[in-house]
């Protein structure tokens, strides 16, 4: 279906962008690899040239172009080169993106600039440069890798700058779909679950891949969108939802570890609601569970109690002086109940029950996830984003605790 079509894909040297490129290449498409990695990166796989080799091997034609989407002239040069080489542009995929999951006070200005420049400005300027050529195509599409806009404050409070930048990409879809209705289709695609990429490895650390799907699911969903007529426009599409509508039934083929629980992606509330209902039903499910919690109050034991014993033993005046916060944990499941870490009172303390003074931060989660979080198997940021951890109170103190955790992990 995409034979002879020219796709201009930003960030196509690796990850999701490359997966979409390879899927189109199997049809015999022309792919413009607009990415900035020309020399091998010390930690990230692939360059525009290695991606070009894979695209050619898959049956497509490749044009590698060094493009940093922060540089308008580099975008314009690549677009001109694409048109000169392939005669036009039929599809633009705005995939290049920058991420920093940090709070307002923790986000350096250069990181804010990077996310706004790459995600919003880069998407806008690349679309602007390609649109005159897209309008000449028989079935032109712009596809942004951006989420449906969800104004639930929880998606803003922990990483305001990142959310604004991703929603900026989505607002380009809203505006341009209407502006170019009847001429160019403009849609957004977003994954239902976390996707295993180099970025996810950096965010989640070792073992995170088991909770992710392969990039193939987004490539298949993108293919469905890009082969639809240009009247299909202004949509915010979730990969799994679309593929189910297209008749896909087996989603294990997309899993890194089939059968392993998957982590929901950012900006999608539905999975968070399910997590809440599930934890509520686990707490309310049987009187026996309540009895277990009450008996635990008398003599706490098990992994949670052991974790708190280690935390108590690792307390230092330095931790107390640098943190100055009191943390209360409401844990469900085995060894659950109320626990605390006091890093404000002289000497510090940790243990079962309510803290000696009012808590600055209250964290709610399952006992099992708590143990994983304190032993380095579950990153607090990802626990929060996936709904496994709920936080009330001072978020900057919660971030301080995360820093302390990274120092404690070796002892735990």
Automatic annotation (TrEMBL):
<keyword id="KW-0560">Oxidoreductase</keyword>
<dbReference type="InterPro" id="IPR002347">
    <property type="entry name" value="SDR_fam"/>
</dbReference>
<keyword id="KW-0576">Peroxisome</keyword>
<dbReference type="Pfam" id="PF00106">
    <property type="entry name" value="adh_short"/>
</dbReference>
<feature type="domain" description="SCP2">
    <location>
        <begin position="317"/>
        <end position="405"/>
    </location>
</feature>
<dbReference type="GO" id="GO:0016491">
    <property type="term" value="F:oxidoreductase activity"/>
</dbReference>
<dbReference type="GO" id="GO:0005739">
    <property type="term" value="C:mitochondrion"/>
</dbReference>
<keyword id="KW-0496">Mitochondrion</keyword>
<protein>
    <recommendedName>
        <fullName>Hydroxysteroid dehydrogenase-like protein 2</fullName>
    </recommendedName>
</protein>
<keyword id="KW-0521">NADP</keyword>
<comment type="similarity">
    <text>Belongs to the short-chain dehydrogenases/reductases (SDR) family.</text>
</comment>
<dbReference type="InterPro" id="IPR003033">
    <property type="entry name" value="SCP2_sterol-bd_dom"/>
</dbReference>
<dbReference type="InterPro" id="IPR051935">
    <property type="entry name" value="HSDL2"/>
</dbReference>
<dbReference type="GO" id="GO:0005777">
    <property type="term" value="C:peroxisome"/>
</dbReference>
<dbReference type="InterPro" id="IPR036291">
    <property type="entry name" value="NAD(P)-bd_dom_sf"/>
</dbReference>
<dbReference type="Pfam" id="PF02036">
    <property type="entry name" value="SCP2"/>
</dbReference>
<dbReference type="InterPro" id="IPR036527">
    <property type="entry name" value="SCP2_sterol-bd_dom_sf"/>
</dbReference>
<feature type="region of interest" description="Disordered">
    <location>
        <begin position="278"/>
        <end position="300"/>
    </location>
</feature>
């Amino acid at each position: 279906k995409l034979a002879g079509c020219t796709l201009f894909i930003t960030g196509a040297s690796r990850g999701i962008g490359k997966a979409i490129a390879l899927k189109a290449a199997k049809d015999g498409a022309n792919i413009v690899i607009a990415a900035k990695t020309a020399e091998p990166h010390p930690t990230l796989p692939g360059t525009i040239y290695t991606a070009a080799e894979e695209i050619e091997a898959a049956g497509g034609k490749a044009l590698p172009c060094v493009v940093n989407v922060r540089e308008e002239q580099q975008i314009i040069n690549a677009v001109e080169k694409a048109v000169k080489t392939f005669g036009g542009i039929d599809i633009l995929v705005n995939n290049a993106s920058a991420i920093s999951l940090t709070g307002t006070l923790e986000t350096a200005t250069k990181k804010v600039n990077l996310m706004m420049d790459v995600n919003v400005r880069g998407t806008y300027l690349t679309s602007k440069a390609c649109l005159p050529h897209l309008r000449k195509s028989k079935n032109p599409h712009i596809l942004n890798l951006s989420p449906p806009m969800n104004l639930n404050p929880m998606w803003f409070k922990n990483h305001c700058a990142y959310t604004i930048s991703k929603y900026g990409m989505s607002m380009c879809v809203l505006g341009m779909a209407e502006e170019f209705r009847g001429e160019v289709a403009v849609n957004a695609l977003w994954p239902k679950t976390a996707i295993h990429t180099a970025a996810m490895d950096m965010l989640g650390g070792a073992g995170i891949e088991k909770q992710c799907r392969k990039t193939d699911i987004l490539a298949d969903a993108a293919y469905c969108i890009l082969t639809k007529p240009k009247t299909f426009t202004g949509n915010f599409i979730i990969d799994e939802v679309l593929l189910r509508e297209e008749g896909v039934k087996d989603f294990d083929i997309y899993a890194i570890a089939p059968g392993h629980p998957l982590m929901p992606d950012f900006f999608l509330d539905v999975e968070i609601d399910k997590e809440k209902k599930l934890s509520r039903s686990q707490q309310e499910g049987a009187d026996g569970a309540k009895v277990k919690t009450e008996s635990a109050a008398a003599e706490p034991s098990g992994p949670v109690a052991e974790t708190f014993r280690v935390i108590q033993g690792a307390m230092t005046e330095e931790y107390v002086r640098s943190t100055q916060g009191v943390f209360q944990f409401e844990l469900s499941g085995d060894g659950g109940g109320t626990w605390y870490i006091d890093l404000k009172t002289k000497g510090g303390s940790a243990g079962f029950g309510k803290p000696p003074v009012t808590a600055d931060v209250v964290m709610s989660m399952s006992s099992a996830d708590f143990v994983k979080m304190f032993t380095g198997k579950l990153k607090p940021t990802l626990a929060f984003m996936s709904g496994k951890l709920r936080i009330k109170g001072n978020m900057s103190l919660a971030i301080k605790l995360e820093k302390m955790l990274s120092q404690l992990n070796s002892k735990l």
